Amino acid sequence: MKLYNLPFFDFMRAWYMKGYYKTYEPDLVQALKYTHDDERCFMVGTGPSLTDEQLDRIRSEITFGTNTAYKLFFKFTYYCVSDQGVWAKHKKKILEEDTQLLLSGHAGRDYLLFEETYKPYIVNKPVILKDLGDIKREGWKDKDLTHGTYWGNTIMVDCALQVAYWMGFKEVYLIGCDCNYKGSHHFDGERFYFQTDTPAYYDQHWKKVFEAHKIIKEGFENKGRKIYNATPGGDLEVYDRVKLEDIV
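and the corresponding structure tokens:
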């Protein structure tokens, strides 16, 4: 899209999104601010490198689960979902998790549209986050979570890391963030299907993901905070790598 079209695009997008957020509750988002100031947390992706041993090491830590991590039968402190495909297929199980659920993107909009339908499954009321646009185009210029979150082509950027920043975490450790689809896509063998299922398309996808991570990294480090990659292997080289066994 040409740059001169962006103001009109943003206006139309804001108008379109307004209908979704009539019941949006910013007070729920505001209440999360600095609730974990100067603490550390562990974010669990769903990559094939994830093991029971890794999870055992972080059971006493503050944790974020993402996407289909409910299958791990692990008690997460927080849980983030944004992806349309994940939400459509797994929403009932995700809503039944006894955790603080945070929904952004398609998942958040769908929940608001069909909230009455989902109430029988809900254990804890989800916190819904608005959309602010593509972080690669917009930059991470607005860090006020009551205004929303940016898209980043991955749940870690779409929701989890922006939430962690708002909560005040000083150190964030990522596990299960393999960031490649060269073999198994996920720890449970489930495969994601994109509109074009080719290696070249996957390469473009991960390039966008890494660009988004770089923006998030800069935002954290500008405030003296740090994100580490504790995933063994994988392709996420944006962050400094550490070994989980050296941390916990």
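(Above: one complete record from the training split.) Residues 221 and 227 are 8 Å apart (CA to CA).
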